[in-house]
Amino acid sequence: MRAVDLIHKKRDGEQLTFAEIDYLIKGYCQGEIPDYQMSAWSMAVFFRGMTKKETADLTMAMAHSGDTVDLGAIHGLTADKHSTGGVGDKTTLVVAPLVAAIGVPVAKMSGRGLGHTGGTIDKLEAIEGFRTELQRDDFFAQVNDIGLAVIGQSGNLTPADKKLYALRDVTATVESIPLIASSVMSKKIAAGADVIVLDVKAGSGAFMKSLEDAEHLARAMVDIGTEVGRRTAAVISDMDQPLGAAIGNALEVAEAIATLKGQGPKDLERLCLTLAAHMAVLAGKAGSIEEAELILREALRSGAALDKFRALVVAQGGDPSMVDQPDRLPAATAFVEVKAESSGWVTGIQAEQLGLAAMKLGAGRATKEAAIDYAVGMLLKKKVGDAVSLGETLAVLHTHEGYVGLDAIMSETAAAFTIDSAQPEAKPLLLSIVTA
Ligand code: URA
């Protein structure tokens, strides 16, 4: 086989076999196929697309390019969720303990944030002492013991995806639905869960800006999961504004704890319940979404979900007093109000812009190596649909005395809010559900 012939074939719109796709992925991983050939092939895929079968074959070739996790040692069907990334998205911190509380085991590998979106692992590390690296056997034992564990991704999970994603990033081939779908699903499949629920965001703060693109991506991912024997569903939600009110690591942990107590923002609670309900149904814990929601609401009301979160913190070495008294989490020392420059209604909030502003305050990383300040970020005081008067507070920046560059961040934060004289039509948070 020769890479050039396979590039030629894809360029002309023909379908590749599993053996051909696997040859490209293995050859690329082993350094036998150079970047320029893989770039040409990715661009051919970008323009020609892939069939369902090709997309599933690419996913499996990448899933088996490194370590795979066999969750067979865990009792029961394990569930995982994946978010395509958003601003203020702390759903894993709520959903994982919530489904674990009703008996669905969660053995989760999560990522760190980069750019304007935060990562679950960074958020959990805002809790003093929380360890995000566990030995494989300890990881399994913890899930069997308390029903959940959340750790960072292992070093050698899907190396083909890491290499190909880095190449796509610099060759304008990221925005290809089969390439995104296989990239996301290869990681989920390698991580081993039986049930996969995808939280696909659509809107200004998301990777997929339109609902149509988000639906295509969700369909491609659900088809891959189904094709390879995983129970998969996707929930498409609006990311035209941040989720909840908190952006920044400790602030998001505190908001997740409030949600586990039934006192969180309604949009966050709604999305978490929906994701958790789909996980519960696919795992066989409920016969319908409605029934699952009833059981899950009871887990919130009774404190069982919060107890699971506390058990997770204790099991992974974190300070549980931060769960019961979230004001003990790392906190900012200076608070700056960003005020409205006109009166009217908030009709839009540029989530990406706020994510970038929080990152500049120190809540996220501009480069992979950058350190994070867990305490900083912002709390939104207004969301889309709220009335606002001139001079009223839109958001509070959580920062430190003497932070240089605050004026620019205040202006960027204010500019992220669109204020119009007409009240906007209410837009639903949940846009669509894609099932097998
Ligand atoms: N996230 C991924 O994991 N892969 C992509 O290709 C795009 C977003």
From TrEMBL:
Keyword terms: Glycosyltransferase, Transferase
Enzyme class: transferase
Entry's EC annotation: 2.4.2.2
GO biological process, alphabetically ordered: pyrimidine nucleobase metabolic process; pyrimidine nucleoside metabolic process
Listed cofactors: K(+)
A GO MF term: deoxyuridine phosphorylase activity
Matches recorded under InterPro entries: Glycosyl_Trfase_fam3, Glycosyl_Trfase_fam3_N_dom, Glycosyl_Trfase_fam3_N_dom_sf, Nuc_phospho_transferase, PYNP-like_C_sf, PYNP_C, Pyrmidine_PPas_bac/euk, Pyrmidine_PPase_CS
A single Gene Ontology CC term: cytosol
Keyword Transferase annotated: yes
PROSITE patterns from the UniProt entry: THYMID_PHOSPHORYLASE (PS00647)
Matches recorded under Pfam families: Glycos_trans_3N (PF02885), Glycos_transf_3 (PF00591), PYNP_C (PF07831)
The reaction(s) this protein catalyses: 2'-deoxyuridine + phosphate = 2-deoxy-alpha-D-ribose 1-phosphate + uracil; thymidine + phosphate = 2-deoxy-alpha-D-ribose 1-phosphate + thymine; uridine + phosphate = alpha-D-ribose 1-phosphate + uracil
Domain Pyrimidine nucleoside phosphorylase C-terminal: residue ranges: 345-420
Protease is among the record's keywords: no
Gene3D superfamilies assigned to the protein according to its UniProt record, in alphabetical order: Nucleoside phosphorylase/phosphoribosyltransferase catalytic domain (3.40.1030.10), Pyrimidine nucleoside phosphorylase-like, C-terminal domain (3.90.1170.30), Transferase, Pyrimidine Nucleoside Phosphorylase, Chain C (1.20.970.10)
Domain of life of the source: Bacteria
Family affiliation: Belongs to the thymidine/pyrimidine-nucleoside phosphorylase family.
Functional description taken from the UniProt entry: Catalyzes phosphorolysis of the pyrimidine nucleosides uridine, thymidine and 2'-deoxyuridine with the formation of the corresponding pyrimidine base and ribose-1-phosphate.
Assembly notes: Homodimer.
Protein name in the entry: Pyrimidine-nucleoside phosphorylase
Species per Swiss-Prot/TrEMBL record: Paenibacillus curdlanolyticus YK9
